[in-house]
Amino acid sequence: MIALLLSVFIFAACSGSNPAGGTSTGGTSNADTKSSIKISYIDVGQGDSALIQVNGKNLLIDAGTNESTNKLISYLDKQNIKKLDYVVATHPHEDHIGGMDTVIKKYDIGEFYAPKKLANTKTFESMMNALKSKNLKINVAKAGVNLDLGKNVKCEMIAPNADNYEDVNNYSAVIKITYGNSKFLFTGDAEKLSEKEILNKNYDISADVLKVGHHGSSSSSSKPFLDKVTPKIAIISCGKNNDYGHPHRETMNELTKRKIQVYRTDVDGTIVLRSDGNKIIKQ
C-alpha cells in the first residue's frame, strides 16, 4: 500500500532526472577539503554510509540504519555539515536508508539520487515523506550519471545497468570517484550479477580503494570483479557480531590472497581516508 501511494510522487520526480548532475555549491567549513579529498566511511553498525568532502562540496552515499541515525547525525555535525550538495540512496534497504529521513529534514540538500525501485516499508515511506516535505525531486541513480564535485574530480555512476532485478541489492548505485590519480569505488550492496554487468560494459573500475559490496558478503566481490578493480585498500562496513556473519570468510580469503589492506567499521570504527590526488592516507 505504501509503495502504491507513493508511486505517483516517486516516478513523477524521477522523470525530472538530470544525468549531468548539478552545480550547487557550498557545504563544508573544512577549508582543507579544497586541496584534498576526504572520505569518511562512517561506522553505522550493520549498514552503510560514506561522506565525501572535496572542493568545498559534500556528497553523502547512504545513511545507515534507523538505529544508527543519532550516530550518523553526530558525525555529520562534527564535520560542520550544513549542506549536502548530493545525497545518494544506493537502494531502498533499511540498512542504507534508515537515517535518510532525518538527514533530509536536517540539512540543506542540493540533489537527491536513488534507483527507480519502490519498497513497501515504513523506512522507505519516511524517506519519501521527508523528500516531499522539502519538495525535493528524485533523480534516477543509474549508469551514466555524473555528479559535479568541482575541479580535478570525476564522479560517475556505473550501475545499475538494467531496469529490473529480482534481487533489490542489484539496483544498487555503484559510484566511482577519481581525484587526481586517486580512485575510490563505492558498490552499495551490488551482487555478482551487477558486477558481471559492469564487467560486460567494460567500464574502467580500477580503484585504489574499494568499499566492498554487501558488507563483505560472499554474494558480492567475485574474483573477476576484484581482478579488474585491483584495490590496494578494501573497506568493509558491517556491525559487530552481526546476524549475517559479515564479512564472509570467502570474501576475506580473496582479499587476503590479493594482499589488500582491509579496514572494517566493526573493528576500526569510522574510517577516514584523505588524498592530495596522489597519496592516500588513513587518518
From TrEMBL:
Q: Which domain of life is it from?
A: Bacteria
Which part of the chain is the Metallo-beta-lactamase domain? 46-240
* Coiled coil location: none
Tell me which positions the record assigns to the signal sequence. 1-20
- Output the InterPro entries linked to this UniProt entry: ComA-like_MBL, Competence_DNA_uptake, Metallo-B-lactamas, RibonucZ/Hydroxyglut_hydro
Q: Does the keyword Signal apply?
A: yes
Keywords in alphabetical order, please.
Signal
| SMART domains in alphabetical order | Lactamase_B (SM00849)
* Signal among keywords: yes
Q: Which Pfam families does the entry mention? A: Lactamase_B
* UniProt-recorded name of the protein: MBL fold metallo-hydrolase
Source organism of the structure = Clostridium aciditolerans
